[in-house]
Predict the 3D structure of the following.
Amino acid sequence: MSELETADEFQALVNSALPTLVRAAAVTENGKLYRSVMARIERPLLRQALDLAGGNQLKAARLLGINRNTLRKRLRLLGLLQSPGGNGTAAPAS
């Protein structure tokens, strides 16, 4: 499958799944629709970037085009990394 076909397939998947996700989040998230939907998209994106980078956060951040500290903050907020003061290892995947 070509990169263009993969991108088209991904777009079709998003277009088919997003309306249901948005409707459900609109009912349950009380004004936090954007955060809720973006967290569901961002979590697997960050996991994939870390996987591609072999767990190296600096490489993953560069791959994503963001600062390493931004990546670490997003990982913590999404529950993929322990808060500061922990032992610095990633939390178990949910």
